[in-house]
Amino acid sequence: EVKDERNQSASEKKVKEAEEIISKMEDLEFANTISYNTFISILSKSKLPDAAESCEVWLNRMIERFAKTGDEKIQPDTCSFNSVIHAYANNPRISAGAPQRAKMAEKLINRMETLFQSGENDQVKPDVVSYSAVINAYAKAAEFDKDCATKAMDILKRMEEMYEGGDKDVKPNKRTYTSVINAFART
User: Fold this and answer.
1) Cα Rg for the chain, rounded, in angstroms?
2) Among 16, 61, 102, 141, which has the minimal tally of Cβ within 10 Å of its Cβ?
3) Which pLDDT belongs to residue 95?
């Protein structure tokens, strides 16, 4: 338990340092999609209890800055969203909150679809990684809410339909199918 606290403290310190750097980059107008994505990825992997929510705050900050400036150098992309979705799917808190985190991950993929299909941002096309991460979030939540297994299956069916309709970027893979099986195994 002491080791976990030390690891979290070290992780918090590293995230704080990275946050100071990205904030300074914003002030100097050096921040770009890669720097934002790198920071969001670091934050998503930090295992901090509020990592997913913080990632989404930073994603929204990026979206707002892009909307305000129209600067394509800071345009959110699929990687930006996927990092936040992964943060919700891989949150270390194993608890009854898992179904809510899975729903948050699904909201993000729905937002990606809307942004992409409307033409508002052609850089945020959901891919197999996006959908598989949402399925994984539902799989982890299935032990707390059996409806999550059904949600995972519904997303898999959606992927299969899109793939059969010609979208080669969403072809389900071994990991996708295994996550759905895990969802049902956890109910």
Assistant:
1) 17
2) 16
3) 72
